[in-house]
Amino acid sequence: MDILDLLSAVLLIIGAAFFLAGTVGLLRFPDVYTRLHALTKADNLGLGFTVLGLVLQAPGVAAGFKLILVWLLALAASATLSFLIARRAFAKGITPWDPEEHEP
Q1: CA 64, CA 70: separation in Å to the nearest integer?
Q2: CA 104 to CA 98: how far, in whole Å?
Q3: Of 28, 45, 51, 74, whose CB is crowded by the most CB atoms within 10 A?
Q4: Measuring CA to CA, which residue among 92, 100, 97, 76 is closest to residue 32?
Q5: Smallest Cα–Cα separation from 90: which of 40, 39, 26, 36?
Q6: By C-alpha distance, which of 11, 87, 92 is closest to 45?
Q7: CB-based contacts of 35: which residues, under 8 Å, 6+ apart?
Q8: How does pLDDT run across 51-99, given as a tens digit for each residue?
């Protein structure tokens, strides 16, 4: 195993850790806004690290460029959909979670 394979494996593991963190945030956070934040931030970073790990293993420049293009399109789609979901939740009257309202 050479250094390129090792670096690729480390980047893929970091990407998987960010995906796991996003999933935990989705399950644990109290409202739609914080859940969206967890998913968009963690999943975008997870996908970024995963793509970087895969680019190092790409057979050519064209394949690496396609991977980066897919990542950029996913970033744009994620930001757009998160904005639309948050705007719809706000329009329906869903208020952000207030910790003072939920004190024990």
Answers
A1: 10
A2: 13
A3: 51
A4: 97
A5: 36
A6: 11
A7: 25, 26, 29
A8: 999 999 999 999 999 999 999 999 999 989 999 999 999 999 988 887 7
> What predicted TM-score, i.e. pTM, was given to this entire model?
0.84
Q: Environment class of residue 22 by beta-carbon count within 10 Å: exposed (0-12), middle (13-18) or buried (19+)? A: buried
CB 33 within 8 A of CB 96: yes
CA distances (Å), 103 to each of 27, 30, 98, in order? 20, 13, 9
From the centroid of its chain, how far is CA 37? 9
* Confidence grade of residue 104 (pLDDT, cut at 50, 70, 90): low
